[in-house]
Design brief:
By secondary structure, the protein is α/β, with parallel strands linked by helices. The chain has 10 helices and 13 strands. A 6-stranded mixed beta sheet has the order 5-6-7-3-8-9, with helices on both faces. A 4-stranded antiparallel beta sheet has the order 11-12-10-13, covered by helices on one side. It has a 3-stranded antiparallel beta sheet with strand order 2-1-4, covered by helices on one side. Helix 6 links the parallel strand 6 and strand 7. The longest helix is centred in the middle third of the chain and has 16 residues. Keywords: Antibiotic resistance, ATP-binding, Cell membrane, Membrane, Nucleotide-binding, Translocase, Transport.
């Protein structure tokens, strides 16, 4: 176990309510220095409410929250000075140039003009935006705006970078470019805390993560640990010429560990997918198509909550 000095962020019984509605329901977690820690879950699971408390912009309703050993209720400004915050939606000033967005934000942290310009040049290079430094923000692509938002959140050289659904709405190529930038950040020593409802993103980026559902943590561990604990080594996907795939669930029952019924396919969980497929055919069941693949975090979520991640 790491020393307590390695714990930059911790929560015990953390709770957030809005009137009669409980958005975050007594969760415990800890984030270690230099890791990427993720909150995975569907929309409405409590991820963003948790991040707003961690970012010291929403007061804690109950429980204990500490960042760098400090209490957000009494030390909010000191904590925020050591945080970078990449919100779910870009809040760039589109009438200004790319570099001007960084300059102005840096001045909020009390950096001198010389420091801001030096730091901005470094961050534009990191975000692969140097050639667009003089351009207005408005015509930039979604991926470029997202990289600029992350660059802006790093202007104060934060120890922890908070990322709330950092790649929502981006195309696959832009997402992979952003993942590369975030991986480089982690390698440089920045601690990352992110929320996402993309399973592949969590697998790519997170050293550890928690799965949230209805404001509670339902599982915790590394992506590999969660898959090992809650799924099988392989999954057999079966598609049939039928509107209701549930009609075929009984026909393949007992093959593998369990069967999940989705609107467009059956998922049959087994350690050996090819062997499971042979057993399906031996029963005289003929799917339109079959596919054997490795288990993913989506399979973990289906097992834990019985529904897909993106609702």
């Amino acid at each position: 176990m790491p020393d307590t000095d390695d714990i930059l962020l911790s929560a015990r019984g953390l709770t957030k309510t809005f009137g009669e509605f409980t958005a975050v329901d007594g969760i415990d977690f800890a984030v270690r220095r230099g890791e990427c820690f993720g909150f995975l879950g569907p929309n409405g699971a409590g991820k963003s409410s948790t991040m707003r408390m961690v970012g010291c912009v929403s007061p804690v309703t109950g429980g204990e929250l500490r960042l760098f050993g400090l209490d957000p209720a009494t030390d909010g400004p000191a904590i925020r000075a050591r945080l970078g915050n990449c919100p779910q939606r870009d809040t760039l000033d589109e009438e200004l140039s790319v570099e001007e967005n960084l300059w102005i934000y840096g001045r909020y942290f009390g950096l001198s003009r010389k420091e801001v310009k030096e730091r901005a040049a470094e961050l534009l290079d990191f975000a692969q935006l140097t050639e667009r430094a003089k351009d207005k923000v408005e015509p930039l692509s979604g991926g470029m705006k997202r990289r600029l938002t992350i660059a802006r959140s790093l202007i104060n050289a934060p120890e922890i970078l908070l990322l709330d659904e950092p790649t929502t709405g981006l195309d696959p190529q832009a997402r992979h470019v952003l993942w590369d930038r975030l991986f480089r950040l982690k390698r440089s020593g920045v601690t990352l805390v992110l929320t996402t409802h993309y399973m592949d993103e969590a697998e790519q980026l997170c050293d550890r993560l928690v799965v949230m559902d209805h404001g509670r943590i339902v599982a915790e561990g590394s992506p590999r640990q969660l898959i090992d604990d809650y799924s099988t080594r392989e999954v057999l996907e079966l598609r049939f010429d039928a509107e209701d795939h549930g009609a075929y669930a009984d026909k393949v029952a007992g093959i593998g560990e369990r069967v999940e019924v989705l609107p467009d396919r059956l998922l049959l969980y087994a350690d050996n997918g090819d062997e499971a497929s042979a057993q399906v055919h031996a029963r005289g069941v003929e799917p339109l198509s079959s596919l054997v693949r490795r288990s993913t975090l989506e399979d973990v979520f289906l097992h834990l909550t019985g529904r897909t991640l993106v609702d």
